[in-house]
Design a protein that fits this description.
The complex is a heterodimer of chains A (665) and B (299). Chain A is an alpha+beta fold and 665 residues long. Chain A is built from 13 helices and 27 strands. In chain A, the strands form ten sheets. In chain A, strands 3-4-5-6 form a four-stranded antiparallel sheet, with helices on one face. In chain A, strands 20-19-17-24 form a four-stranded antiparallel sheet, with no helix packed on it. A three-stranded antiparallel sheet of chain A has the order 10-14-13, with helices on one face. In chain A, strand 21 and strand 22 form a beta hairpin. Chain B is mainly α and 299 residues long. In chain B, 68% of the residues lie in helices and 8% in strands. Classes of the chains: A alpha+beta (665), B mainly alpha (299).
């Protein structure tokens, strides 16, 4: 009779069951804990006679209750949610950087700059308004710089964070490998190691938040963890990762491997790399494009304008061309061509007479070569102006008594000595802004002679492109109602005036009106008479000579205090669609950029919320299977109590039986 | 389904979190009074708010230009009115000088009077408004009328040396106005103002009554020029006022759209806030009081 053995086995089983229930209750809130169940099996006894009575029960193993499908789904969605969490947080940060729609954003700064130009155009000689324009220009540049710095910080933070995440991943895989080894040790002994497995699986879950992982179940409770096909944990071995940079992109590789990138697809690390390599650089490139287009467009106008002080005696280039990189690749938006023009006006200050010199430029050359050939072309072809190169920068210097400029599109006093052959000749003058789209030559011929303001004089103006056939002929007549000095309308904004004096029939003169004084935009490249200097959002700044002395702000075509044509042109730049293949103004482009960030954030936030809800459901489903129900455990305890009570009674009964026997002896 | 404590706790925390999130959004709207606080609150609305906001700033710069044009016009009108009054005085002297009853000595006195008035006229035509000559066209730093005198200091000729074109500035999306005036077209539209007066002075000195009578006609022509200029400037001032009112209307319309887009309906948000608050309190109360009854209570 095995009475006591059965009783003792039953008592042991009952206490173990109570202990297990207690353990379960104690871990009800432990993250990653799965409720454990005892594997109670009968103890096979020796055969006595023909019957086989067992030796009671014993707890053979303790295992976790878990549903593999739910666990896998949880792992997958943890990765997805973590990716979105990271991306949403970064996009939120970027959106804050732009701080729209407030009074502190670039939108307002750009608007204020153009508004201040509109106001300056009304009083082009007002020093207060000039100062205001320079301050607004400074605010625009400063906001660009500030945004660029913000992008720098975001990228730097992301790089640091990615490096930290990689360290965390390495720490996690190492611990997972260690736990694998321990689990294997226990399970080769034939029993489960549920607590170790829970600990390890919780670490795998934490790993899944950081990077996409796939879990492969191996023998003896061991799991192998791989990321995109590369094993991070293989039984007791872990492969650490490292972070590396190549071509400005950050990637992750296994330590020891050469150049093999790990295609990280999900998890916080994936979110960071996506931001770091794609999203943030794309937004940043958009901002740089905006800054460059803005600088270029404003400078194209400003470089070909005159300050109220009139033409220049000297100008120093702000930008150095030290290498022979092609001009078109430098980022200054120079148009490449072998027949580009730069027109330089040289004024003899003693007579006020202006002569135009047209230089043909080859902008397909490399930077330094171009600079040298431009210097030589100026020194050879433009009298009274000397060009020198100082540290890759072009300096222009006028002789005493002479001044130069790039503004007036025509020779304002076109008649050369002898053109008007009459005694006491009248002097013709050309006025105002030329609005034509191409260069045109105007040949003015007086068909009849006489005294200006007294006699009837017929004027014929033949218009042709340089070297081309006559396109059209305009005729004008003046008579005794003409007041010497009155304006005679020509075309394309040009006006002719004749001073008191005489002309002879057949007298004629000609002048060329230039649509652009600098067809390739080389003045912006060289930094001559620019309002803004510097490439990209990070470097853009108000040119030093204007910041220090706002009276250098240039807005006239002619050296005339009330000439505001270039200020008007600059203010009009606001409405030109220069970006997005000619469909967007600066403001449109900027708002599209800000909207893109906000939309990206919103789309991802919705996805993030959905993933959150899904994860929540999955966690509930897991807890429904694997969670600890305190009620359930209490019932288990009660059951075990009953078992214990019964076993105790049984032992007492067996004891009674034995005592009868003892009494007999 | 098997229900465990953790599931209930998680559900409670999740819905509490969602409610608090909504409460914080409403709170931000209430405290700023704005429905759009970042672009992502309403991407399209925010774009519109930004665009119209800048449009209004731009309209403000036009209004500033109109103010500036008003000031210039007021200044010019004042100068021209004084010129007109001076012309009336010159004419009175001319009419007296043409009368037989005055002696040639008296005409010398009248001539001196005309000479003084001529100086007044020249200085009026050369008026500068805080440094900028108003009647010089674009050449705002050059006195528009240059005076030639003979050896004894008499004015013999007054020539216009200002520009024939004036500075145009924007006062509306497609409207510009002159920010300074071309003296010639103000004072010498059809007549020869200064020449006439110089001739009148000389005729008075010479007691040439026929010439004086002829010059009275010329004076009238010039006076009409000046009066017409006054009328034109007045008309332009009126147009600017209309423009200003139009800009104000545009601004008002834009503001309305901005407010509709960006402004939070405070009453509505407050009601939502209160109901959210009540809901939250209820959830908390239920959570605190009605935790799941457990078997432990019955053991």
């Amino acid at each position: 009779m095995a009475g006591f053995t059965i009783g003792v086995n039953a008592l042991r089983t009952a206490t173990q069951l109570v202990d297990l229930a207690g353990d379960n209750i104690a871990n009800a809130n432990t993250p990653g804990y799965h409720v454990k169940r005892a594997d109670v099996e009968p103890v096979i006894g020796p055969q006595t006679g023909r019957s086989l009575i067992g030796l009671g029960s014993s707890v053979e193993d303790i295992t976790r209750v878990r549903n593999e499908l739910i666990e896998r789904a949880l792992l997958t969605h943890t990765q997805l949610k973590a990716t979105l969490d990271e991306e949403v947080a970064n996009l939120e940060h970027l959106e804050t950087l732009f701080s729209e729609p407030t009074d502190a954003g670039l939108d307002v700064r750009l608007g204020e700059f153009f508004d201040s130009l509109t106001q300056l155009a009304a009083n082009p000689d007002d020093p207060t308004l000039k100062e205001a324009v320079v301050q607004k220009a400074y605010a625009v540049a400063d906001t660009f710089n500030h945004l660029d710095e913000g992008f720098d910080n975001v990228l730097e933070d992301l790089r640091t964070a990615a490096a930290n995440v990689v360290e965390q991943i390495n720490a996690l895989t190492e611990r997972i490998a260690t736990l694998n080894a321990q689990i294997k040790l226990v399970e080769t002994g034939g029993v489960s190691a549920p607590d170790l497995e829970d600990m390890r699986d919780e670490l795998v879950r934490q790993l899944a938040e950081l990077v996409n992982v796939t879990v492969y179940q191996a023998d003896y409770g061991v799991v192998n963890v791989s990321c995109a096909g590369t094993l991070l944990v293989s039984e007791g071995q872990s492969s650490p990762l490292r972070i590396a940079e190549e071509d400005g992109k950050t990637y992750v590789a296994v330590v020891g491997s050469v150049g093999q990138r790990l295609p990280v697809r999900e998890g916080r690390l994936a979110g960071m790399l996506e931001m770091l390599n794609n999203e943030v650089p794309a937004y940043r490139a958009g901002l740089d494009e905006l800054a460059n287009a803005f600088r270029h467009a404003i400078n194209l106008v400003h470089t070909t304008a005159l300050p109220s002080a009139g033409r220049f005696h000297s100008l120093e280039g702000a930008n150095a061309l030290l290498t022979d990189d092609p001009l078109g690749s430098l980022g200054y938006g120079v148009i490449e061509g072998t027949d580009e023009r730069l027109v330089i006006n040289v004024e003899d200050e003693s007579t006020g007479d202006v002569t135009q010199y047209e230089l043909t430029l080859d902008t397909t050359q490399g930077g330094a070569t171009f600079l040298t050939s431009l210097r030589d072309a100026i020194n050879a072809g433009v009298p009274h102006v000397t060009a020198t190169i100082d540290d890759g920068k072009l300096d222009l210097q006028a002789e005493d008594g002479y001044a130069f400029g790039f503004a007036t599109q025509y020779d304002p006093d076109p008649a050369q000595p002898g053109d008007i052959s009459a005694v006491a000749p009248t002097s013709p003058a050309i006025l105002d802004a030329y609005t034509g789209a191409t260069d045109l030559v105007y040949e003015v011929t007086f068909l009849s002679g006489g005294e200006v303001g007294t006699d009837a004089i017929n004027i014929q103006i033949a218009v042709h492109e340089p070297g081309g056939p006559v396109l059209r002929t305009i005729t004008r007549q003046i008579d005794d109602t003409y007041d010497p000095g009155e304006t005679i309308q020509l075309e394309n904004g040009l006006k002719l005036t004749l001073s008191a004096g005489n002309v002879a029939a057949g007298d004629s003169f000609a002048f060329t009106a230039h649509a652009s004084m600098d067809t390739a935009g080389v003045l912006d490249l060289l930094g001559l008479n620019t309002l803004f200097d510097g490439l990209g959002a990070g470097e853009i700044a108000v040119s030093g000579r204007i910041y220090q002395d706002p009276s250098n702000l240039a807005g006239g075509l002619r050296p005339m205090s009330g000439d505001n044509h270039r200020f008007l042109d600059m203010a009009a730049v606001r409405s030109s669609t220069l970006l997005a293949s000619g469909t967007a103004t600066f403001a449109d482009f900027y708002r599209a950029e800000v909207s893109a960030i906000a939309t990206a954030r919103n789309t991802r936030t919705v996805a993030q919320q959905n993933q959150g809800q899904l994860l929540q459901d999955l966690e509930n489903r897991r807890d429904s299977v694997s969670g600890v129900s305190v009620d359930e455990e209490m019932v288990k305890i009660m059951e075990a109590q009953t078992l214990y009570k019964g076993a105790a009674k049984y032992i007492s009964a067996v004891n009674q039986l034995f005592s009868y026997l003892v009494d007999l002896v | 389904m098997r229900v465990t404590q953790n599931m209930l706790d998680r559900d409670l925390l999740y819905s509490l979190g969602r409610n608090l999130e909504r409460l914080s959004t409403l709170n931000e709207q209430l405290s700023t009074g704005q429905r759009i606080n970042t672009v992502s609150d309403d991407v399209i609305g925010a774009g519109q708010v930004m665009r119209l906001g800048r449009e209004n700033d731009r309209l403000d710069s036009y209004t500033a230009n109109i103010e500036s044009a008003h000031t210039m016009l007021a200044f010019a009108t004042d100068a021209i009115q004084r010129a007109s009054a001076t012309m009336a005085q010159i004419k009175t002297l001319a009419v007296q000088g043409a009368t037989e009853t005055y002696t040639s000595t008296e005409r010398q006195v009248m001539a001196d009077g005309v000479d003084n008035l001529l100086s007044t006229l020249i200085s009026l035509a050369n008026s500068d408004n805080s440094g900028a000559y108003v009647f010089a066209g674009e050449a705002t730093t050059v006195a528009p009328y240059a005076v030639t005198t003979d050896a004894s200091g008499n004015v013999v000729a007054v020539t216009y040396q200002g520009e024939r074109i004036s500075t145009e500035a924007a006062v509306g999306p497609r409207t510009t106005t002159e920010m300074n005036l071309v003296g010639e077209s103000v004072f010498q539209r059809t007549g020869h103002l200064f020449d006439t007066i110089v001739q009148l002075r000389d005729a008075l000195r010479a007691s040439d009554r026929d010439e004086i009578n002829r010059l009275i006609g010329e004076l009238d022509t010039s006076h009409t020029d000046i009066r017409q200029s006054l009328g034109r400037l007045g008309e332009r001032d009126n147009q600017l006022q209309v423009m200003e009112a139009t800009l104000e209307t545009f601004k008002g319309l834009n503001d309305e759209v901005i407010t509709n887009n960006q402004g939070a309906d405070v009453a509505e948000v407050a009601v939502q806030y209160n109901s959210m608050m009540a809901l939250l309190q209820m959830v908390m109360k239920v959570a605190a009081e009605a935790t799941k009854p457990s078997i432990i209570d019955y053991l």
